[in-house]
Amino acid sequence: MKKLLLICAALLMMVNAKAQFPMMGGGNAAPKVTGRVSATILDSVSKQPVEYATVSLVNAKTAKAVNGGLTDAKGKVSIQNIAPGEYKMIVGFIGYATKTIAVKTTPEKPDNNLGNLFLAGNSSTLKEVTIEGKKNVVENKIDRMVYNAEADATNAGGDATDVMRKVPMLSVDINGNVQLRGSAVRVLINGKPSGTMANSVADALKMIPAEQIKSVEVITNPSAKYDAEGSGGIINIITKKSNAEGVSGSVNASAGTRQNNGSLNLTAKSGRFSANTALGGFLAYPQETKTAFLNKISVGDILQNGMSDWKREGFNGSLGLDYDFNAYNNLSTNAKYNTFYNGGSSGSNIFANGIPTGNIVGNSDMSNGNLDWNLDYRRTSKKQGEEFSVAGQLTLGRNNNEFVNDERTAAGAPISYDESNNIGKNREYTLQTDYIYPFSKTIIFEAGAKGILRNIKSEFSQDSERDFDYDQNVGAAYSTIAFNLTDKIKFKGGVRGEYTEISFVDVNGNLNKNDYFNLFPNAILSQAINPTSTLKLAYNKRVQRPSLAYLNPFLNRTNPYSLMQGNPDLNPELSHNVELGYSTFIKGSMINASLFYRNTRNVIESINQKYTENGSTGKILTTYANVGTTQSFGANLFASYNPTPKWTLMTNLGVNTYEIRKTANALGGMNEGTYLNYNLFLRSATAFKGGWNLELYGVVNSPRYTYQSKTDPMFFYGGAVKKDIMKKQASIGLNMLNPFNRDLHIKTVTQSDDTYQTTNIYYPLRQISLNFSYKFGKLKFTEKKKIKNDDMKQDQQQGGGMGGMGQGK
Question: What are the boundaries of the region Disordered (predicted)?
Answer without folding.
Answer: 787-809
